[in-house]
Amino acid sequence: MHQLPSLTGIGHPENSRLAGAPAGYLARQLADFKNGARKGSANMVTFAQAMTPEEMKIAADYFAALPIKPWTRVIETDTVPVTYFLGTRRMPLPAGGTEAIGSRIIEIPEDPARVELRDPNSGFIAYVPRGSLAKGQLLVAIGGDGKTIACTICHGPTLKGLGEVPGIAGQSPVNIARQLYLFATGERAGIWAVLMKGVVERLANEDIVAISALVGSLGP
């Protein structure tokens, strides 16, 4: 999370989807931001530190009750629009042009003007390298060549969550990749983060891109 999600809880590439997440999980994340276990967002740390346990519960219950909807289209490609950063958001260059995607995920608004207004009906396109979805399927379903374990073990058979473990299907691929990196480096800590660190610490950049692409392409 780099900016506050909208009140719909759907999220953007620079923050996480909160809608439909287990209330217990959301409350735990707020507590982790407050106690310093979870880093990566100065805004969230500031907000969490100012919240009481009761306020955390109210916020968690609110977002947990919100509906989830498809928000990001994942497209495999060799070339992507030339982009630039406007604050923390990647935007298409107004002058146009294309460039090679390389080993990146390039996620931009479907309609830049509408997204800047936080229009809850205008989502994103995530461009990923060709072959990412097939490679991601192998890693997500069976752990690939032993680099990791199947995501379905903890996140459920359709990756839509299991108990207090949140659903990741349909999340922003950029945000998924960011969280995997934070788990791997230890910047995202907390009681359950230790389990994720062991899962992701041996993944290469290409693996993280593939997993994030596949997970983001699924229906939420």
Strand order of the largest sheet: 1-7-6
Radius of gyration: 17 Å
Annotated CATH architecture of the domain at 72-217: Orthogonal Bundle
Largest sheet: 3 strands, mixed
Query: How much is the average pLDDT?
Result: 91
Secondary-structure element pattern, one letter each: HHHEEEEEEHEHHHHH
- The CATH topology label of the domain at 72-217 is Cytochrome Bc1 Complex, Chain D, domain 2
Ends: how far apart? 19 Å
For the record, what is the CATH homologous superfamily label of the domain at 72-217?
A: Cytochrome c-like domain
What shape does the CA trace take? Answer: globular
What is the compact description of this entry?
The chain has helices spanning 23-35, 42-49, 53-64, 112-116, 132-142, 152-155, 173-185, 193-200, 205-217, and strands at residues 72-77, 79-81, 83-86, 89-92, 98-100, 106-109, 124-129. By secondary structure, the protein is α+β, with helices and mostly antiparallel strands. It has a domain at 72-217: Cytochrome c-like domain (Cytochrome Bc1 Complex, Chain D, domain 2), CATH 1.10.760.
Task: Based on the model shown, name its key terms.
220 residues, 9 helices, alpha+beta, 40% helix, three-stranded mixed beta sheet, globular
Task: Describe the protein in words.
The chain is an alpha+beta fold and 220 residues long. It has a domain at 72-217: Orthogonal Bundle (Cytochrome Bc1 Complex, Chain D, domain 2), CATH 1.10.760.10. Helix content is 40%, strand content 14%. The chain is built from nine helices and seven strands; from the N terminus they run αααββββββαβααααα. The protein has helices at residues 23-35, 42-49, 53-64, 112-116, 132-142, 152-155, 173-185, 193-200, 205-217, and strands at 72-77, 79-81, 83-86, 89-92, 98-100, 106-109, 124-129. The strands form three sheets. Strands 1-7-6 form a three-stranded mixed beta sheet. It has a two-stranded antiparallel sheet with strand order 2-5. The chain has a two-stranded antiparallel ribbon with strand order 3-4. A hairpin with a 2-residue loop joins strand 3 and strand 4. Helix 1 (23-35) packs across helix 2 (42-49), helix 5 packs across helix 9 and helix 7 (173-185) crosses helix 9. The longest helix has 13 residues, at 23-35. It is globular, with a radius of gyration of 17 Å. Mean pLDDT is 91; it is low at 1-5.
